[in-house]
UniProtKB/TrEMBL annotation:
It comes from Jiella flava. InterPro entries: Acyl_CoA_acyltransferase (IPR016181), GNAT_dom (IPR000182), MSMEG_0567_GNAT (IPR024035). Residues 14-160 form the N-acetyltransferase domain. This is GNAT family N-acetyltransferase. Signal peptide: none annotated. GO terms for molecular function: acyltransferase activity, transferring groups other than amino-acyl groups.
Amino acid sequence: MKAFGPTVFYCPGFFIRAATALYEARGAAALRHRVFVEEQQIFKDHDRDAIDAVATTLVALSTYAHEADEVVGTVRIHEAEPGLWWGSRLAVDQEFRAVGRLGRQLIRLAVSTAKGRGCDRFFAHVQRQNVPLFAKLGWSIEDEVVVHGVPHALMRADLTCYEPVADPQVGWLSLASQGRPAIRSRSRQACEGVPALLAPSWPQWSVSA
Ligand SMILES: CC(C)(COP(=O)(O)OP(=O)(O)OC[C@H]1O[C@@H](n2cnc3c(N)ncnc32)[C@H](O)[C@@H]1OP(=O)(O)O)[C@@H](O)C(=O)NCCC(=O)NCCS
């Protein structure tokens, strides 16, 4: 039996899907601000640009009592010209990195959504430290570029590695993986009324990316 502190919440899973609700769009914008303005200081005041008007925002949502809770990951995609798609502003909340494979799953949903909409080329400017992550997911380097004063790799996705997704607003539920810390979350009341949510032995049927 495992004891949990009264203020530690172990998030049991995540919804990975296109943002449709206002709180999802606002949560994605706030997360981008925390990551690209405050943490990485790539932008001074805000990171919004003209692409936001045409982009589809995808999100990773933590869950609480089986319901979607906070936006803890995001990425946006847009079609620059017929068949040519770009992904940008990939961000995972600092407290949720490397624990739920959220970055990997957001990349998967991004490319799969574009593929479902007729994408035949998918590119992203990838910060150097993230090149190994993208390479593991079937992306290759096309060029080295500087974007917003930061060195990036221009990378292209191998579309054969991705299945098309026709309904990204449905997305999928990814359960926290066994054998790793389920999640380090912000302090909040433990979900004492729903003990199953806390069980580290919860069956594994998460969708791997
Ligand atoms: C990059 C980022 C989105 C990755 O999110 P994440 O949820 O931590 O990534 P995942 O857990 O899905 O990582 C998948 C795998 O890649 C590895 N990985 C993640 N980031 C990595 C990095 N920067 N370098 C090397 N490996 C990395 C993870 O360890 C994991 O390995 P595993 O599959 O063997 O366990 C996140 O670190 C982030 O938001 N960083 C700050 C903003 C940023 O850099 N955005 C990207 C701009 S291109």
